[in-house]
Amino acid sequence: MELINFGLNLVIYFYDTYLQMLSNLSIRNYALIRELEMSPSTSLNIITGETGAGKSIMLGAIGLLLGKRADTKILFSKEIKCVIEGTFEISKYELKGEFDEAELDYDPTTIIRREISPNGKSRAFINDIPTTLDVLKKIGLKLLDIHSQNESIEIGKKETRLKIVDDYAQNSDLKAVYLKYYANFKLSESMLEELTIQHSNVKKEDSYNTYLLNELVSASLKPNEADGLESELKILENSEDIKLKLSQIIIKFQDSDYSVSEKIAEIVNLLANLTLYSEQLKVLNDRFLSSFLELKDVVYELEGLSDNVEHNPERIQEINDRLGLLYQLQQKHNTNDVSGLIDIQLELTSRIETNEQLEEKITYTKKSFDLAKKQMLSAGKNLTNSRKEVLGSFSKEIGNLLSEVGILNGIIQMIHKTKEPSKTGFDDIEILFSANAGILPEPLAQVASGGEFSRLMLCIKSLLANKSSLPTIIFDEIDTGVSGEIAKKMASMLRRMSKNHQLIAISHLPQIAAKGNAHYFVYKKESNGSTETSIRKLDAKEHVQEIAKMIGGENPTTTALQNAKELIEF
C-alpha cells in the first residue's frame, strides 16, 4: 500500500493540465545568472536552494517583466544585453480589451520580453511589439502576482486593502462603471473650475471695460477725424491773416486798374493772332489759354474761401474741446490716432461679448457637472454597498482559514470608513487583527508577527483564489516564521490552491517543498573563474533526496529519507 500511495504521488508530481499561465521563463545575463530557463507546472511549483544561491535574484528578474526599472549594474556580462522573457497562456483570462486599449496584438500565447543593453537603454516588448513600462506593468500585473515579505508594507496602503475587498466581492464591473463616471466627474469639475476662474478674472475687469467702452462709444469716433479738425482749426486761428492776403490776391488779379487778369487777356489775344503762322504757336496758344482758365478758376475758389473764412471763436473752442477729448482718449489708451481708438473699441466690445458667452458656457458646463456628479455618486454608492455587504463574510471566512493554519483564536475585523470621493471610491477599509483570545484586534501592520502575517496573507490569497481567476502567484518565503505542523497545514492550503491556480513558492521548509507538483533547485556553480546561479528541475528521486537534505542536512540518513517520503505522501 505504501508503494501504491508513493506511486500515485509521483503521477501527480509529473502531471500538468492542458492550460497554464506562465509556461516558460527565460533569464539571460542577469546578475549572477548567465542563462536560466524553466517551464513551470500548472499547479504548485517549489523552488529551493541554499541561502545566497540566487532565489531572490530570480524574483528580481521576474520583476522586470512587471515594469520595474533596471540599470546596467544588473548585467552579468557588461558586453551583452540582458534579456528576460516570459511566455504566458492567457486564453481563459479576459484580457483582449487590455491589449486593444494598449494597441497591442492579442495572442492566447503571449510573450513578454524585457531587454537592458550595456549602454543602459531599456526596452519592453509584448508579442514583439515595443511598449512602455507603464503598459508593461498594467499587463504584467494581470499575469503575475508576487507575494513578498514586503507585502506587509503594501497592505498598510489603503488601495491594497480596498483591492482585497474588491477582489473578494468581485467588484470589477462596479469599479469599471464608477471609474468611468468618476473620470467624467473630474473632467467636468476641472472644466467648470477653469471657466469659473476665467469668468471671475474677466468679471473683475468687466465694469471697467464697460466704462471704457461706453466712453469710446459716446465719443462717436470717426477715422481721420482729428486730421480734419486740426486743419480746420489752423484756418480758423489764422482767419484774419488768411482773409487779408486772399483779398489782396483777388484785387491784384482782377479788381485793380492794372489787373493781372486784363494783362493776361491781352497776351491771349496777341497769341491768338499768331496761330495762323505756325502749328507750334497754335499749341502754345492753347496751353497758355488753358493755364489762364485754370488760373481764373483758382482765383474763383480763393474768392469762395475768402467769403467763408471768418473769425469764429465758438467754433475754435468747439474744435479745441473735441481735439482735447480725442487726445485725452489716445493718451489714456496709449495709441497714436483715432483709428487705434476704434480698434480698442472693437476689442472691448469683443471682450464683453465673450464674457456674456462665457456665462452661457458656465451654465451649460454646470449642468454637465451636476449630471456627472449624480452619476458618479450613484455608481460610488453601488460600489460602497457591495464592499460593505462582504466585510462580515470576508472576516468570517478568513477566521476559518486561520484556524486551519494554527491560529485558532484569530480574529479579523474589517472597519469601513467613508471618505471624500476619489478614484478608489468613497471608502477606506482598515484591517484589524488579533491572534490571541482576549486581545482586542488592532491594525494589522502593528500587531502581526512574521509567522502570523505569513499565514494570514496565505489565507487571504487562498480565499481570493476561490473567488476569481488570479494570475500566476509567486510566494517568496510565505513560510517565514512557521515550522512543524503549521508548515504542513500551510502546505496543504497551497496544494489546494494550486488545483485552480498556478503557484510558484520559494521555500526553505521541507513540509512545503514536499507538496510541490514540480520541484526546482537553485544552486551556484563556478565557471571560468566566476560564480553563476543556475536552476534545474528535480526528478522524483531527486525530489525525495532534496527534501531529505532539508530535514537532515547535506548527507541525509535513511530516517531522513523515510521522513521525506512520508511528507510527500501526507
The strands making up the biggest β-sheet line up spatially as 2-1-4-5-6-7
The CATH class of the domain at 1-149 and 477-570 is Alpha Beta
CATH architecture of the domain at 1-149 and 477-570: 3-Layer(aba) Sandwich
> Rough shape?
elongated
The major pleated sheet works out as: 6 strands, antiparallel
User: Count of helices?
Assistant: 19
Radius of gyration: 48 Å
Percentage of residues in DSSP E strands: 15-25%
- The average pLDDT is 84
Distance between the termini: 14 Å
Number of strands: 15
Going by CATH, the homologous superfamily of the domain at 1-149 and 477-570 would be P-loop containing nucleotide triphosphate hydrolases
Class by alpha and beta content: alpha/beta
- The helical percent reads 55-70%
The CATH topology of the domain at 1-149 and 477-570: Rossmann fold
Oligomer classification = single chain
Low-confidence stretches: 1-19
Description of the structure:
The protein is of the alpha/beta class. Among the domains are: 1-149 and 477-570, P-loop containing nucleotide triphosphate hydrolases (Rossmann fold), CATH 3.40.50; 225-336. The protein has 19 helices and 15 strands. It has helices at 2-14, 55-64, 96-101, 133-143, 151-154, 158-169, 172-218, 225-237, 239-255, 260-274, 279-308, 313-332, 338-404, 444-447, 450-465, 484-497, 510-513, 540-552, 558-569, and strands at residues 22-30, 33-38, 44-49, 82-89, 109-116, 122-126, 129-131, 144-147, 411-422, 425-434, 442-443, 472-476, 503-506, 518-527, 530-537. A six-stranded antiparallel beta sheet has the order 2-1-4-5-6-7, covered by helices on one side. A six-stranded mixed beta sheet has the order 8-12-13-3-14-15. A three-stranded antiparallel beta sheet has the order 9-10-11. Strand 12 (472-476), helix 16 (484-497) and strand 13 (503-506) form a beta-alpha-beta unit. The radius of gyration is 48 Å and the shape is elongated.
